[in-house]
Amino acid sequence: MRWHGAASPSRVRGAGLCLQGIFAGPSQRCPATEYNMASQLHALLGMSQAKPNLAVVALPEPYQEIEPRPLLAAELSQASVTFGLGESAVAALSETTLRIPDGEFLALVGPSGCGKSTILRLVSGLVQPSSGAVIVGGREVAAKALRLGMAFQNPTMLPWLTIEQNVMLPLKIVQPFRAQFHKEKRGGFRDKVHALLAQVGLQGFAGKYPWQLSGGMLQRANLCRALIHEPRMLLLDEPFGALDQFTREELWAILQELWLAHRPTVLLVTHDLREAGFLASRICVMSARPGRIIDDSSVEFARPRSIAMTFEPEFVALNQRLRELIVDARSARATTGSA
Predict the structure, then answer these.
(1) Which own/partner pairs from 85-88 qualify as long-range (CB within 8 Å, at least 24 positions apart)?
(2) Beta partners for 135?
(3) Positive or negative: CA dihedral 193, 209, 242, 316
(4) CATH number at residue 291
């Protein structure tokens, strides 16, 4: 594999990481940060081998379709996941069938450890199913047929790069942008980054380094990096979980605006029921481990949605129903475990 610039092994080792042994090696490492950074680099490097997808054109203008988009962005067909072997095996996900139409905003909620993130990793290709099949963009997930964007709870910005360079990183890795990178990085690609940063309220911060931004600002930049290469599907694993309530609500509105403007398919994993109700067009509730989907319902509130709407009786009733489903799922798990 040929390496370029900021993502080269020498630069990564210089930051205290080693891609050949991400969990072992440098001292004073942070395993959680290394795992998240490794996951994102793994996904980006995998996407670099994807065939160019010309279904969308440059952000931030609305895109024009050149070829038909698939009716289903992703599908799990009786997919299950078990980690380990023998007596140490852990069933993380029961046989699950889930269909995600193109352009839908789907939220997964449920008890901790129920397999929400496992489904997200199945769709991304970071985890392979133990049984069943995962189809993304009309092909087996290993074919990488659909261009993906990913954002985790930890923004994992590369500290030696500016915000502009961090956001631009997928354009250096993912085709067809990679072929044009050296020609466009100071022209069209830079304009694309600045336009997207302006959409999330970060105009004027492109030249700053990650340590100069607050947690909420880094998460905005994280969303920009996930969207800059025009993904057909956006995978979000509790991206706002570490932020205070007011910052979370502000970012909900920003994410809603981005989704309404560009309409990628979004798969959101969250523990926040208000967040799910505010953002999603459909919510799936999962049982306790081994996870399975126990409720699948649409969210019919009109868009654009407001924070004030989340205090209205219909929205409160939705949250209460979701909460009761999760409490029942936790209770069923506790009863099974004690039997």
Answers:
(1) none
(2) 75, 140
(3) negative
(4) 3.40.50.300
What DSSP string describes 172-202?
Answer: HHSTTGGGGHHHHTTTHHHHHHHHHHHHTT-
Give the pair of three-digit tokens for residue 146. 């659909």
Beta carbons of 142 and 125 less than 8 angstroms apart: yes
Query: Is the CB of residue 221 less than 8 Å from the CB of residue 202?
Result: yes
Q: Which of 43, 32, 45 is nearest to 6 (CA)?
A: 45
Domain extent at residue 70:
5-338
- Provide the number of structural domains found in the chain: 1
pLDDT 10s digits, 2-24: 444 444 444 433 433 333 333 33
Alpha helices, DSSP H, located in the chain: 9-14, 31-47, 116-124, 163-173, 181-184, 188-199, 215-227, 245-262, 273-279, 313-338
The predicted-structure confidence for 140-199, as pLDDT tens digits, reads as follows 665 555 688 998 888 889 999 999 999 999 999 888 888 989 888 889 999 999 999 998
pTM passes above 0.70: yes
d(C-alpha 136, C-alpha 72), whole Å: 8
Element (H, E) at 134: strand 131-136
175 CA to centre of own chain: 19
Evaluate whether 118 touches 291 at the Cβ level (below 8 Å). Answer: yes
Residue 148, pLDDT score: 87
One-character DSSP codes across 57-104: --SSSPP--SSPPPSEEEEEEEEEEEESSGGG-EEEEEEEEEEEETT-
Q: What pLDDT digit, counting tens, does each position of 23-60 carry?
A: 333 334 444 444 455 555 555 554 444 443 333 333 34
C-beta neighbour count of 27 within 10 angstroms: 5
